[in-house]
Amino acid sequence: MPQPDGLRIVYIVDEDVPVREALARLIDSSGLEARPCTSLEEFLQQAHGIRVACVLLDVTRAHDSDLALRTALQSVASKLPVIGLSSSDDPAVRHLARDLGVRSFFQKPVDGAALLDSIDWLMHGDWRGKGGAAPGAPPLSRA
User: Which of 2, 9, 23, 130 is most exposed, with minimal Cβ within 10 Å?
Assistant: First the structure.
């Protein structure tokens, strides 16, 4: 369902309840609307008609999803900015993040201020352009 102009939504896709709740509190406290999702499937069911939003995605959970779900996520990532989160920061995880269309990547635990800066940049900037990583986020190409 399309949302009204000006409403800024951040979907949080993470199966880890404490992480999801902490991110939701951070997002809500910044004046954005957090919409926590327990799974990639739940998020994709809500993703239709979204115009102004950002997605925080636990990249490792996306890896565990089947090919159809990953393909659907890639389609969403072409329309909405996706920020990848992971407790692991290794080349395989970064490669997966790039394949999924992630625009910015953070290792857990996440620096809240840097994450909010990245969300702001992605929601207001030309995130589809060829610019660098969002502020505060390490580049995805780091080996």
Answer: 130
Across 33-52, b (16+ Cβ under 10 Å) vs e yields ebbbbeebeebbeebeebee
**Predicted TM-score (pTM) of this structure:** 0.80
All structural domains of the chain: 9-124 (3.40.50.2300)
Task: Round to the nearest angstrom and report the end-to-end CA distance of the chain.
Answer: 39
Most confident of 20-29, 53-62, 72-81, 133-142: 20-29
Q: How far apart are alpha carbons 94 and 120 in whole angstroms?
A: 22
β partners of residue 105: 84
Please report the beta strands in 9-136, taking only residues with DSSP state E, as ranges in sequence order.
9-13, 33-37, 53-58, 82-86, 104-107
- To the nearest 10°, the Cα dihedral for 24, 25, 28, 33? 20
Task: Report the C-alpha gap between 67 and 123 in whole angstroms.
Answer: 28
Residues 6+ apart with CB under 8 A from 121: 127, 134, 135
